[in-house]
Each structure stands twice: as structure tokens, then as C-alpha cells.
């Protein structure tokens, strides 16, 4: 099977213009099938302030009312996605930006929760691999933003880590997938205050131990749960590390490699 | 050759949620290869006001400074494009939204003008028909917004009428093209104050006469110049009329049909 590299970049790099430029140059240079998935960043929050649309967070998730959905659609699908696509094009990478609504690539449903109304937050139902595969086979690089739809006309705000994981799982029947979650740290850290304490290889057993010992910090748990879930569903390799070191992550020289055993 | 219907909708219908919904339902029902091109609408202007970014117009064209480019990218490529795509998907039309940067579909250059600095306004250099053709052959409906790029990383604000015309010309070697410019009037009017004075068929000779007599109002001239230029370059049919009457325009029952002779 052909290799496919799926990279998710987080908000911190999107907020830093020069870091983002360097990352996109490195990303464009990767000589393989590839998909980029980007998160949000602070621009949506700043725009909401300018528009006097107050933001609410519950468990680190934005409550997406109608005004917020409009703002994140503008910022994620519009400004961030197209800025990334234009820069990749300038670097010789034939990028094409997509929300889940485009070509019905990611269908989701409005989150159902017993006590919290998340508003227009979407949980992924299905990924249509046929369009993604067609684009990849034509040498294009899909750039996914965290906006999906319910196929009934409703756009939905969806977690980018989840999109990365679901896309990786769905495409694992067709490609050998390496999934990279990049964020602001060097990798999964044994000591959250020490950037040099990167765990080189994290197995299911080790992860359970660290969770029991309370050594894995809160924000990492959904990311790692996502990573192990992806491995279980056919993804070949999951790596967590810094976007600035993408080549080293791919080479196995840096970051944390997630594995079953 | 297969038929391809290219429809451009203007700002007035985009600003009217219920009219837009009806139009998209009708558009989705067209049983042929089709491309939709949309303009801007008032939302960008309103957002600019909220963000205290003053807008300048010269000859009816927005002067696009960096703040305005960010706003139009958010509104055109983000909110409007994705709202349209999601609604078309709900109506069973497999729409996929694109800026000119996506898949390098429309390459443009920053406008050069002797006396006016238009800022980040782009004039079209080339349309890449291969991706559009691939998408159409897969049953997808491209939805183009009026944002292009220069392939050097710069997004550009581009007139939607021009994009429609250039796309129609470029694709005319591969498809029998019907190009529809829809706007707020019933068609090209002999008397601008009388909606019943639609010119059913407008030829080059008649158009010249009307221009000489000063009977064609200012805003129509670039639209009609575009239309005749498209015909000259291989487009089979150009129709101008109301978006609310799309089926009648396609049937030849309403609107103005533009022809050489």
C-alpha cells in the first residue's frame, strides 16, 4: 500500500505567522501523499471580542452558539484555511482546502449531551474516502479545517484532533498511514515542566501506568486516547511532537512514538 | 460535447436568506454538469464596520487593503461559500467550494493601474480546467468564490463576473457552455425604470446602438462586455436575468439572451 502522512497542527503554530510559514515550507517538501488538518487558534476568539460575541468554554470545548459558528466558519474555513492553501501553493504543494461539507467529506451530527448544550458542535459520523483518495491520486494535498456538516444544511464546529483520527482510521484500509499530532511541546513528557523528559516510545501498558500515577496532564489524555484508538483501527504509526520539527518527527529522531507494545 | 451550466449569482440574493435558499433548491435540481460562482454581498461591509476597517470604493470596485482582504477572505471563502455548499449538500447536490488558490484553479495577479492602487485586487491570468473537469466528471459541483491567488502566497480579491466569464471561456473547449449571469433585475432592460422592458435577445449590433444612445446603464456595461467576450471565445449561450427564475432562464422563457447576431 502507498504511504499517506496525515499531520494535524494546533492553534499555537497557527497564531505565529513566521513559525507557520516555516512549517508549511517543511510540510510542502514532504515527498509522499499527505493531508494537513488544522485547528483554530486565537483569531476566532479575538474576532468574537471585536464583534461583541462572548465566548463560553466547557471542559476546554467552545460552546458554539449561532454567532460563534459564523465566526469559526469565517476564521477556520475562510482565513486560516485559505492562507495555508495559498502558502502551500507558493511552496509547490498542490493544496486544496476542504470543510466536511465540501464533497460531503465529513458528515457529523450535533453533539447530544445529558446536561450540557454544546450548541453547533459536531461529532463525526463518517468520512467519505473516495473524494480524498481521488484528490491524493491526482497529486493534490487536502487541507481539512475543523468545520463539518450534518448533510441537512447545518455546518458544525468539530474538534480537529478527532477529524485527524477519523480520517486516519477511514483511510487506513487504502494507505499505510502515519498520523502526526503536532503541538507546542517536544512530545509526551514524563515531567510536564521538563521539555527534555520526552517519552520516546509510549505503549498502551505504559500509558495506563502513567494515567494511574497521574503523570499525564489533562489536555494530553484525549489526544492520547485518540492516538491509541487510531492504532487499534489500522493506523500504522502515531507520533506526537513539535510542528517545528516535522522532519525529525517523520525520521523518528524526535517526539513520542505511540505503539501497542 | 457534454453540456455545462455556469451560473453566477450576485450579492442581492446572497443577502436574502430565504431567496438564497429557494435559489439553491432550484440550482440543486438542475440535472446537468454545473458550476456556481457567487459574489460578495453586504456581509463583508457590515463586518468591516464592526471591525472598524473603513471601506473605500473606486469605480464601484472595493479597494482591498490588507484588513479588507482578511475580511473578504473570511466572508466570501468562509461564511458565504460554506453556507452555500452545506445547503446544496442538503438538497442532494454534491457541491465543493473553491477559491482560486485551492488546487491552483484560478491564478491571478495584483492589478496594475496607472493612477489607482487597488490594493489586493486580482485580475485573472489563467484557469486550470483539469481539476474542474475531474470534479465535474465525478458528479461534483464546484462552487467558486471570488478569492484568487498569485501562486506566490498572496490571496487576491477578484470580480465574480470576471471569474464566471474566464471559467466559461476556459472550459468551452471541453463542454457546451451556458453561462448565466443572474442579478436583481428581470434581464437587460430597455427602460431601466421598467422591469417589463426586458430585451429578449440582445445582439452585438443592438448593444452598440443602445450604448451610443446611452440606454444601457453603467453597471450593465462591464457585465455585457463580459458576456459578448465570452461568446467570442467559444461559450455557446449567455443569459442575463433573475436568480429567482433560474429554471425559466434556462428554458429561454425569461431574461435576456445574448447572441452575436
Question: In words, what does this structure look like?
Answer:
2 copies of one chain form a homodimer. With 261 residues, chain A is α/β, with parallel strands linked by helices. Chain A is 38% helix and 25% strand. Chain A has 9 helices and 14 strands. In chain A, the strands form 4 sheets. An 8-stranded mixed sheet of chain A has the order 5-8-2-1-11-13-14-12, with helices on both faces. Chain A has a two-stranded antiparallel ribbon with strand order 3-4. The first copy, chain A, has a two-stranded antiparallel sheet with strand order 6-7. In chain A, strand 9 and strand 10 (155-157) form a beta hairpin. At the A-B interface, helix 4 and strand 5 of A face helix 4 and strand 5 of B.
Query: What is the strand arrangement across the widest sheet of chain A?
Result: 5-8-2-1-11-13-14-12
Q: How many DSSP E strands of chain A?
A: 14
Cα-atom Rg of chain A, whole angstroms? 18 Å
Largest sheet of chain A: 8 strands, mixed
Keywords:
14 strands; 9 helices; homodimer; eight-stranded mixed beta sheet; 261 residues; alpha/beta
Task: Give me a quick take on this structure.
2 copies of one chain form a homodimer. By secondary structure, chain A is α/β, with parallel strands linked by helices.
Element layout with pairings:
2 copies of one chain form a homodimer.
Chain A lengths: L2 E7 L1 H4 L2 H13 L3 E6 L4 H8 L5 E3 L2 E3 L2 H25 L4 E4 L7 E5 L11 E6 L1 H9 L3 E4 L2 E3 L5 E3 L2 H12 L4 E8 L17 E3 H9 L7 H13 L4 E6 L3 H6 L4 E4 L2
Parallel strand pairs in A: 1-2, 1-11, 2-8, 5-8, 11-13, 12-14
Antiparallel strand pairs in A: 3-4, 6-7, 9-10, 13-14
Amino acid at each position: 500500500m502507498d504511504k499517506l502522512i496525515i499531520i494535524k497542527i494546533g492553534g499555537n503554530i497557527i497564531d505565529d505567522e513566521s513559525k507557520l510559514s516555516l512549517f508549511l515550507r517543511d510540510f510542502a517538501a514532504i515527498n509522499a501523499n499527505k493531508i494537513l488538518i488544522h485547528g483554530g487558534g486565537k483569531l476566532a476568539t479575538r474576532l468574537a471580542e471585536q464583534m461583541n460575541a462572548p465566548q463560553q468554554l466547557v471542559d476546554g470545548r467552545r460552546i458554539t452558539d449561532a454567532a460563534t459558528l459564523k465566526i469559526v466558519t469565517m476564521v477556520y474555513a475562510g482565513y486560516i484555511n485559505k492562507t495555508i492553501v495559498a502558502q502551500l501553493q507558493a511552496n509547490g504543494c498542490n493544496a486544496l482546502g476542504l470543510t466536511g461539507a465540501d464533497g460531503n467529506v465529513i458528515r457529523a451530527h450535533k453533539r447530544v449531551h445529558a446536561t450540557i448544550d454544546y450548541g453547533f458542535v459536531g461529532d463525526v459520523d463518517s468520512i467519505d474516502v473516495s473524494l480524498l483518495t481521488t484528490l491524493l491520486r491526482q497529486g493534490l494535498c487536502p487541507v481539512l479545517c475543523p468545520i463539518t456538516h450534518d448533510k441537512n444544511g447545518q455546518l458544525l464546529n468539530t474538534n480537529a484532533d478527532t477529524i485527524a483520527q477519523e480520517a486516519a482510521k477511514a483511510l487506513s484500509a487504502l494507505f499505510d498511514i502515519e498520523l502526526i499530532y503536532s503541538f507546542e511541546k517536544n512530545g509526551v513528557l514524563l515531567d510536564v515542566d521538563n521539555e527534555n523528559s520526552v517519552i520516546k516510545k509510549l505503549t498502551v501498558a505504559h500509558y495506563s501506568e502513567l494515567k494511574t500515577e497521574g503523570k499525564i496532564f489533562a489536555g494530553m489524555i484525549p489526544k492520547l486516547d485518540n492516538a491509541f484508538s487510531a492504532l487499534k483501527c489500522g493506523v500504522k504509526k502515531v507520533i506526537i511532537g513539535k510542528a517545528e520539527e516535522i522532519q525529525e518527527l517523520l525520521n523518528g529522531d524526535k517526539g513520542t512514538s505511540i505503539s501497542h507494545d
